[in-house]
Amino acid sequence: MGGAVFNTFATPACGALSAMQAIPLEWRILTRDCVIYVISVVVLVIIMWDGIIQLYEAIILMVLLISYLMILFCSKYIVRWYNKIVHLYIYRTRSTSFTNEETPKSNEESMPDGLYRPYFHGELVVEYRKSIASQKPSIIGVEAQNPMEKIEEYVEPDTPFVWPTGSKLNKIWFYLVWPLKLILFVTIPDCRYKRWKKWYLLTFIMCVIWIAVASYLTSWMTTVLGDTIGIPDSVMGITFQSAGGNMPELVSIVILSKQGNGDMAMSNTLGANTLDILLCLGLPWMIKILMDRKDITIISGALRFSVLSIVLCVIAFYLVTAFCKYRLNKKVGVICLILYAIFLVFALSFELNVFFLVNLPMCSP
């Protein structure tokens, strides 16, 4: 649950603070993702309220997952239907208000001032991204007038065996990460090299495997560390494990924000949260119940309150972006960081029994 709030506040905050300029967001896409996510969280709260997960409840999450995927795959048809309704409404409104005028040649010309124009915001997004692409330097360090130029002059990345240049800090960092870079270089075919260009599918599979291995090691080490120093697993999960487990989303949103792809960045973040609930909880719960032939008991007594607070976090994030006119800018980043800090204070206070008893004390060895 800490990872969900981390993705809701901390990840967009890093993307907003790392962007070169304010990134416009398509309000319909953001609204769709937030509504679907809130529905998933509400269902999760209802399922977890009694502290017991049954088989039919896990199946409900899987059914919602399939419905969510169907909505994504049919998104363009839904948009077409929506735009058709909007066009029809605008046409009828104009026909009623301007009956004495000549019939317009197109829907675009027929819209009087003040009426909503479909795709207008999307055109602004496209033009904005084009302006960013024209301002960014090309991959070989030359200012690119045409983003499609100089693709053939792409320089292959360096191998882990290239000695770094620069300050001593860069060299120290090189020594620290060199073993990991070597392992990844040997086990994952890098599609950026021409000789591995056709092995992109194997690259994707190996990346997924390494993410799974890293996630397991992170969870195991966090559990052992918390047990050693006497910190409950729920507290470690809300803080350290949530931040470490969502590093891929954080890196992705930083990269996409620098490229000006705000809609893709936010859809990636909110979509990851939705999949964390429907897939990453529903599927393991269903498999566990089928294997053990018994229900699952949730240990944390404050977890349902933390999950319920996620709904408030999503609503707060949506209101913040709406207040900033659906733009991902520095103001949104600072506000999201403050809200994330407030959430951590209250969530940890619940888990540590500051307000009232919700978790039993840990057993002494």
From TrEMBL:
Localization per Swiss-Prot or TrEMBL: Membrane
**Major localization class:** membrane
Keywords for the protein's UniProt record, in alphabetical order: Antiport, Calcium, Calcium transport, Ion transport, Membrane, Potassium, Potassium transport, Signal, Sodium, Sodium transport, Symport, Transmembrane, Transmembrane helix, Transport
Which ranges does the record mark as transmembrane?
Answer: 35-52, 59-79, 200-218, 270-290, 302-320, 332-358
Q: Which organism is it from?
A: Cyphomyrmex costatus
Annotated protein name in UniProt: Sodium/potassium/calcium exchanger 3
The protein's matches in InterPro entries, at most eight in alphabetical order, are given as: K/Na/Ca-exchanger (IPR004481), NaCa_Exmemb (IPR004837), NCX_ion-bd_dom_sf (IPR044880)
- Membrane topology per record: Multi-pass membrane protein
State a GO cellular component annotated for this protein: plasma membrane
Q: Note whether Calcium occurs among the keywords.
A: yes
Single Gene Ontology MF annotation = calcium channel activity
Similarity remark: Belongs to the Ca(2+):cation antiporter (CaCA) (TC 2.A.19) family. SLC24A subfamily.
Q: Which residues form the Sodium/calcium exchanger membrane region domain?
A: 199-348
Note whether S-adenosyl-L-methionine occurs among the keywords: no
Q: Which GO terms describe its biological process?
A: intracellular calcium ion homeostasis
